[in-house]
Amino acid sequence: xxxxxxxxxxxxxxxxxxxxxxxxxxxxxxxxxxxxxxxxxxxxxxxxxxxxxxxxxxxxxxxxxxxxxxxxxxxxxxxxxxxxxxxxxxxxxxxxxxxxxxxxxxxxxxxxxxxxxxxxxxxxxxxxxxxxxxxxxxxxxxxxxxxxxxxxxxxxxxxxxxxxxxxxxxxxxxxxxxxxxxxxxxxxxxxxxxxxxxxxxxxxxxxxxxxxxxxxxxxxxxxxxxxxxxxxxxxxxxxxxxxxxxxxxxxxxxxxxxxxxxxxxxxxxxxxxxxxxxxxxxxxxxxxxxxxxxxxxxxxxxxxxxxxxxxxxxxxxxxxxxxxxxxxxxxxxxxxxxxxxx
Length: 342
Ligand code: WQD
Prior knowledge:
Layout: E1 4-8, H1 13-24, E2 28-33, H2 41-50, E3 55-58, H3 64-73, E4 77-82, H4 89-94, H5 96-116, E5 121-127, H6 151-168, E6 174-180, E7 182-184, H7 203-211, E8 218-221, E9 233-234, E10 236-238, H8 239-254, E11 262-267, E12 273-274, H9 275-286, E13 292-295, H10 310-315, H11 324-341
Helix pairs in contact: 1-2, 1-8, 3-5, 5-6, 7-11, 9-11
Bound molecules: UDP-4-deoxy-4-formamido-beta-L-arabinopyranose (WQD).
């Protein structure tokens, strides 16, 4: 009998790729999603890849009654992986209350009602943004968590603090928080990938949409940073590597291998790439000349961010298998498939 996992936000970018890996690892998956930043068609995409259609509960986790009854219905689940959250940094600066309400209320209702049903394992989708401007590089989990610049980042920091307080109580909660660096790429099949609603905030979808003619020009936010080519450095990680790390974290929880009730792991490659390096790689791989222009810096951008990945390698027995070229090639394959579907 397959163990049941509840995946909130499972129709989203990282959530859907994680659902694929969970199914391929013989877990039964129930997706809870309000489709506010995703599409129900993702369920069919998951089925096309895995041969299995995950169960789906269409609900808003801010709704207490609906959330309570969903967890009651699936009280046989053994863990929750919580992706459901708004995630656009710039939007969160413009509309902080929307972010605090959605991201924190969804988290609190999820935790309250899963614990009420005795579902004590929880994996949280966190972000390297909690480090703010890192005091040292590469960033380890011991790096001081600072006041993130954006409300989006602060909801991730506050969520981790909620988990810290919960595991100190008699809640029986066992939790792992995964701090993502910069997820990019798409499933190798080309049937699943990032599908942001509206104008992309993140670099990779903006690059592929510019190359596909959906966007006129990519704006490169500043080339006056103290980096090799003046553009900011990020630790880009393949979304499928990220998904596989979630399965490893889940297995650690289910096998009771944890050293403490709340563990935190960086999920990155340990390598930094600049914006111009990503652009040049894209042009080399696709043989497309990208239309871009250097403009002013984007407020809140950090100069350099890349991970020390030793802890995840040691404790999760996980490390990245896919490099930048595969990340970029898979992103472009997905963009081209989207165009064929139009
Ligand atoms: C990467 C680099 C930009 C767009 C944020 C969150 C993080 C995670 C990923 C949600 C930066 C540059 C970007 C563009 C550009 N959360 N850029 N032109 O800001 O590192 O991280 O998104 O998914 O928690 O903090 O990612 O992809 O927005 O930017 O020049 O049109 O690309 O300046 O240097 P970021 P990003």
